[in-house]
Amino acid sequence: MEYVLQTNAVKKDYGNYKALNGLTMHVPKGSIYGFIGKNGAGKTTLIRLVCGLQQPTDGEMEIYGIGHKDRGIFKARRRMGAVVENPSVYLDMTAQENLKEQYRILGMPSFSGIDELLKLVGLEDTGKKKAKNFSLGMRQRLGIAVALAGNPDFLILDEPVNGLDPQGIVEIRELILKLNREKGITVLVSSHILDELSKLATHFGFIDKGKIIKEMNASALEAACRKCIKITVTDTKILSGVLDEAGAEYSVLSDTQAEIYGEIEITELALKLNARRCRIQTITEHNETLESFYINLVGGER
Amino acid sequence: MNRLLIANFARIKKNKPFWVLCGVMALTAIVMVVNAVSNRDTQIDGAMCAFAIPVEIAAAIFISIFFGTEYGDGTIRNKLIIGHDRRQIYFANLITAAICLLAFAAAYMLPVVIFGFPLVALPTVQAVRMIAVGILTLFAFCSIYVMVSMIYSNKAGATVVNLVVAFLMLFAAFIIFARLATPEFYPVHGLEPGEAEYVRNPSYISGAKRTVLQALLDLLPAGQAIQLLTGTESPLWALPLYSAGVCAVCTAVGAVVFYKKDIK
Fold first, then answer.
1. Containing domain of residue B94, as a range?
2. CA diameter of chain A
């Protein structure tokens, strides 16, 4: 698999505080990588290192296969765009002026793509309004437009939906999906709003105390979090027979407990079990969310 | 680095504080010319050579605000994220600041040339030399303020530090200058009218102490700015050497610290 970003045992210390403690992660090309962790877990610190705002204390980091100490890293970063924490925009400039400034920094030969960019992020009608008068969502979208100015292949968004209203959250989500699907941009998006990430990410990295504790793709996570019915019966052998006949997917947990995945007709199941003298003692719907999955991973209390 | 310079100058073109400070420089020069005319001065040199002091203060304000905005709005990150080298960013900012200081100096000189030359007099050759030296003094101020602004990421904090540095330098330079200007002898009038005796001034600074204080005055850019007005005891060629030293040290310190700085 081709990776846009790989880190190997990256450490970052601020005095005695270890913000990153041997973090290893892999962001596959073309993915939307959801970087999940609670506040203070080290998400923003890693993003700062990837963006060259800070240097790691130890460990290796590769962007497009180029190590962070190589001279070529500056060239590799030209293929990147990022919004780190707050959007980086000049508040006393309009959306168009901000993009022109970024085009100059990038050394773009003309300003021809600016109107298209503004349209892409939905800021084409802001006219002479200065960024200081924008709403948080508009600033966030302008920040993304600035990050997209150099036509990057790799976009990093740090908590992009923080502080946004539900409408703004949906807009940012749709924009990320559009960029990934239509332009093939690899996106690394960090958030602590887990359900939001679960709606767009194709890969997940769970970070806790400065370390990645689990990396998995969306289908693996879906399998881990899928809906099931937890059933307690007098005999799981009889239950297995009935479920096999119905073609249901299930797993037996003990002589009396099993989990049934997918949709099942409960009345029919109850009648069939009753006919074979097997009684249902309890039945509960079990639905593990990304949130509870994460809490289980980091060993927190539910 | 060209791209960074082009981007900086595009910002300056629309930067209100820059144009306001240019206006303030021009107004200051007009006041100086009016003062020279009302005093019936026969030379314009004093009004011309005073430019370094107002530019020093304007530079402290402008450099702090202009580069502080990059930290305040977070836009310095845009330059780093897309792969600009930190040294290039530092030097692009230093060059931008130096050119802006030249613009402030030009804004000051323009009314002097337009009104001062016809109303008072043309400048002497020595005044022209002083101005050339003063340009290098401005670069020394510039290197100090850019160093502070690039190291200290708080816009308001950097503005306060730069203004305090600017006024402290001026204050220190005035004190040193006043002590060095103390005459070696002073007259004691005798009993007869017109009879005066010169006695040695115990406050006069001489020997190694005088050499050290003079070197300190030459080293301080504000000290140079005062000496451009009053004349200097040191040879004129020595002042640019001191300015070059200040520029080299401040730029080296600023660039190294900025290179290693953790940016949030």
1. 2-169+229-260
2. 80
B189 belongs to a structural domain: no
Question: Is B188 domain-assigned?
Answer: no
* Residue B79 placed within a domain: yes
Closest-CA distance of chain B to residue A100, Å: 9
Rounded to whole angstroms, how far apart are CA atoms B119 and A131? 48
Collect all residues of chain B within an 8 Å Cβ-Cβ radius of residue A93. 14
- Check residue A59 and report its DSSP letter: E
Q: Give the bridge partners for A206, in sequence order.
A: A36, A214
Residue B216 and residue A63: Cα distance in Å, rounded?
50
> Using CB atoms and an 8 Å cut-off, which of residues 3-62 of chain A contact chain B?
14, 48, 51-55
Q: Give the 3-state DSSP-derived string for B126-139, with helices as H, strands as E and coil as C.
A: HHHHHHHHHHHHHH
- Domains of chain A, first to last: 3-216 (3.40.50.300), 226-298 (3.30.70.100)
Q: What is the ipTM of this complex?
A: 0.84
Our count of domains for chain B comes to 1
Amino acid at B21: L
Query: What is the pTM assigned to this prediction?
Result: 0.83
Neighbour count for residue B68 (Cβ, 10 Å): 22
Question: What are the tens digits of pLDDT across the range A6-56?
Answer: 999 999 999 899 999 999 999 999 999 999 888 888 999 999 999 999 999
- Cα A103 to Cα A114, A188, B5, B94, B222, distances in angstroms: 9, 23, 13, 21, 39
In chain A, positions 225-244, which contact chain B (CB-CB < 8 Å)? none
Structure tokens at B245: 């030293």
Tokens of A37: 């962790």
- Nearest CB to A88; choose among B6, B7, B74: B74
> Is residue B175 in a domain?
no
